[in-house]
Amino acid sequence: TRTEDVQKLVSWYLSNCKEYQVVPSADVLTFLKLGGSSLTLNRYHNRKDGWRSPCFGDLDLQPLAVLLEAEASLLGRLQVLDVSGARGLGPSGAVQLAQLIGSPRASKLVSLNLSGQRPGVEGVAALVDAVRRSKSLRSLEMRSCHFGDAGGELFAALLQEGQEVHGLEHLDLENNFISFHTCQCLQQASRGQKLQLQLVGNQVLDEVLNAVSHGLGLLLAIVGSVFLGIAASEKPYHCKVAVALYCIALNVLYIASTLFHSFYALGPTVVWVFGVLDHCAIYLLIAGSYCPFLSVFFPGALSEQKLLVSLWVMAFSGMITTAFYRGPQKKWIELSLYLGMGWSCAGCLGEMMARMGPEGSRLLVAGGLFYTGGVPFFVKGKRTLGVPDHTIWHIFVLAGSMSHYFCVLWYCVPLAGKFNVQLQ
């Protein structure tokens, strides 16, 4: 009877655990008793060591592996295997799992989750070979396994062989310390395949450079805001408000960018949220940068008010687009808005420069050119002379914001209250 068969399997598993001198897993016992098609293995806690001690490791896997290898019906019905909660499997455990996955008996296994384990290069090599032999596996998750470029190159070689060889439709390799070059190889190898490849949280060096570059910008923005606030303290009210908006926008941009690149390894949801904040902050800075110039050189002018209102409307429209639009043209829509807003002052630029003087004009134009000059690197998103293009983009942004900052400090705020010219 089924009850007798289940009891036989349970007794067999318990006997194996006793032989290997490990504590039986409640997850395995539940799987054996209920006869499901999904097995999730979690770490348990040894009463002797306390509740915080993870104990499910390579040795704990052996009694289950022996049972699955010997009992064809168990391995044959298994469709989903999730060991991400075990938090204790190393190379030998990964090799053992690979042997099970590659077995002809595992004909229904479609999903394997090894996230958080430490398979090492040896384990990854065995798993990659098992994927080749498996005829059913469609999803493989290996987040935070820390196998680096050595493991990434093994997966790249697998993907290059084509989907008819590996059969995968979903491959998650997030947070594995894979370098830019190997990530590029993985992406190129997966082109033309119906494969969802996830690589968020890799390229550690790139993200460190990105975070440090705009972290420096944040420090400069904080210090600069103090000096700019002091300079505007005795100026008319409209100048104080404009300077305050500019300083807020400048600091928000560098805070958002620094946090976005610092939190690169905290998962796709966190990366998406801070990525939205990062891109929204660009709209904020563009609109905020216009405030002191238009308020000082064209105070109270109807045209100045219309231009400012239109800029802020475009900024908030861009923020909504960034937050909610998911279409394929999102990047180009954002870039068009950035550039359109940035150069929307063309109609009043000549008069503004005439009132600002040649030195201030050079800083103003230089800032715009720096921002615009960084766009090709932002779009390219690869490397130039070994330096990440996104870091180069950050350097252009730093140069642009510094140019505009000193233009506001030296040639804009000191002239507050001296003009009352209507813009035609």
From TrEMBL:
The keyword Transmembrane applies. GO terms for cellular component: membrane. It is a multi-pass membrane protein. It is found in: Membrane. Zn(2+) binds at H261, H390, H394. The keyword Membrane applies. GO terms for molecular function: metal ion binding. The chain crosses the membrane at residues 211-231, 243-264, 270-295, 307-326, 362-379, 391-413. Keywords: Membrane, Metal-binding, Transmembrane, Transmembrane helix, Zinc. It comes from the Eukaryota. This is Uncharacterized protein.
